[in-house]
Amino acid sequence: MPSLTAALTLTSEQQAQLEDLLQKSRQQSLRLREQGLSEESLRAGRRELQTQTRAKIRSMLTDPQRQKYEELVQTLDRQREEARLQGRPGRVWMRQADGVPQPLVLRLGISDEAFTEVVAGELHEGQEVITGTLAAAKRSTSTPTTTPPGFGQRAF
Questions:
Q1: Per-residue model confidence (pLDDT) at position 99
Q2: Which residues of the chain have pLDDT under 50?
Q3: How far is Cα 94 from Cα 130, in angstroms, rounded to an integer?
Q4: Does residue 138 sit in helix, strand or coil?
Q5: Cα separation of 6 and 16, whole Å?
Q6: Whether residue 122 is found in the same domain as residue 81
Q7: Domain limits at 63?
Q8: Would residue 87 be called left, alpha or beta, if left means φ above 0 and alpha means ψ between -120 and 50 degrees?
Q9: Angle between helices 12-34 and 39-59 (to 10 degrees)
């Protein structure tokens, strides 16, 4: 809200309207999350809520403010898309010829806990990677033998 207030030079009446609007939007977002929706339905609900909120903001602005708001929204949307395309950081390990693991830095996209999209990095389909370690077959009782779920060798 402070950045919109400054960027759009909002009047005190507009600030009060915006504060009320954003508070209601936050409450609606919380209600969406509490409904136990699937991830896809939750994202769709949030997109619809964002569209409605932006429309209400536009309706309370003057023409010059609305033009500036559109520029801000376009910049924000472009930055979010660029961040989405860049992915999030990730790492796997490749076994070298001498058997020593070497880290491989990746940029990761969407994941469903079984499959993960690799959006950037020197990894090719079918390559074996090390994503964790397996517990030794026999260990003393004083050493934990559990391995976090999802760790082991996988082919991407």
A1: 80
A2: 137-140, 142-149, 151, 153
A3: 6
A4: coil
A5: 14
A6: no
A7: 2-85
A8: left
A9: 170
Final residue belonging to a domain, choices 44, 69, 85: 85
Which tokens hold the place of 55?
């429309």
Give the pLDDT score at 113: 65
- pTM score: 0.53
Residue the block writes with tokens 């959006």: 119
**C-alpha separations of 83 from 4, 80, 88, 89 in Å:** 22, 5, 8, 11
Contact 96, 102 (CB under 8 A): yes
pLDDT at 51: 93
Q: Which two tokens stand for residue 10?
A: 């909002």
* Pair 15, 75 in one domain: yes
Please identify, among 85, 106, 135, the residue that sits at the C-terminal boundary of a domain: 85
Element spanning 78, H or E: helix 63-86
| Confidence (pLDDT) at 12 | 92
Q: Residue 145's pLDDT is what?
A: 47
